[in-house]
Amino acid sequence: MTAPTSPADDASAAGLAPVLVIIPTYNESENLERIVTRLHEHNPEVHVLVADDNSPDGTGEIGDKLAAKDQRVHVLHRKGKEGLGAAYLAGFAWGLDAGYAVIVEMDADGSHRPEDLPKLLAALHEQNADLVLGSRWVKGGSVVNWPTSREILSRGGNLYVRVATGMKLHDATGGFRAFRRATLEGIGLSNVESAGYCFQVDMARRAVQTGFKVVEVPITFVEREFGVSKMSGNIVVEALWRSTVWGFQDRTAKLTGRGAKNQQSHQ
């Protein structure tokens, strides 16, 4: 009897790179098919995991229809709305179990352009990176259809995160990023409890602390055309507050010598 193959095995057997793009969804029925189609137009080799939080608008069912027509598409149905961080953690677990070598985070609303994904994947290899962040705020990066107030909030928030945590990253809150498998395995996913902006900062911080190489590449971020944004003031406030706490904890750990010990234990 032939042993069953995983989605990643199927990709490798076909001579394709085992890359999984996780797209978390909640009420994204207007966007899901559009973004999956665009993604495969520009990156035909990648697989997609739709991590749906039991969307009442039928997004999960749309994902099932896409999966029935295309073996590159998979759907993870979750019990309810538990937040972005929880959806990604479930997706990471699924992807690692399936054997993917690279796992990508991407929004469903089209704000992360599939055309930019090859740059993220190339940086993993050409710059020997362990985590690649798609950055709006490095040279060459940009945003489209954002009001000035939102750009100031994002730039200011990222500046605060840099100062509070000591990370030399320009866009630690961005959600378009590519992880090597070893990076996710090495940063300790079991005790990640943050969500939203906070989740993205937490994941970047863990990678930096563990000694992994984090690289930023410029992307163009486009404001969604359809559906409603999940961003709120509370999410931003939580991210800034947690960044302050993490920065204090990290500086305290360095003073006591615990930070160096923790980093060495992961290398």
Briefly, what is this?
Helices cover 47% and strands 16% of the residues. It has helices spanning 7-13, 32-42, 59-69, 84-98, 117-126, 148-165, 181-186, 196-210, 233-256, 258-265, and strands at residues 19-25, 47-52, 73-77, 102-105, 131-135, 142-144, 177-180, 214-218, 220-222. Mean pLDDT is 86; it is low at 260-267.
Structural features, described:
Strands 3-2-1-4-7-5-8 form a seven-stranded mixed sheet, sandwiched between helices. Strands 6-9 form a two-stranded parallel ribbon. Mean pLDDT is 86; it is low at 260-267. It is an alpha/beta fold and 267 residues long. It has helices spanning 7-13, 32-42, 59-69, 84-98, 117-126, 148-165, 181-186, 196-210, 233-256, 258-265, and strands spanning 19-25, 47-52, 73-77, 102-105, 131-135, 142-144, 177-180, 214-218, 220-222.
User: Helical content, roughly?
Assistant: 40-55%
What share of the residues does DSSP label as strand, in percent?
15-25%
**Measured on Cα atoms, how large is the radius of gyration?**
18 Å
Mean pLDDT across all amino acids? 86
Unreliable runs, pLDDT <50, ≥5 residues?
Answer: 260-267
**Biggest sheet layout:** 7 strands, mixed
List the helices and strands in order: HEHEHEHEHEEHEHHEEHH
- CA distance, first residue to last residue: 40 Å
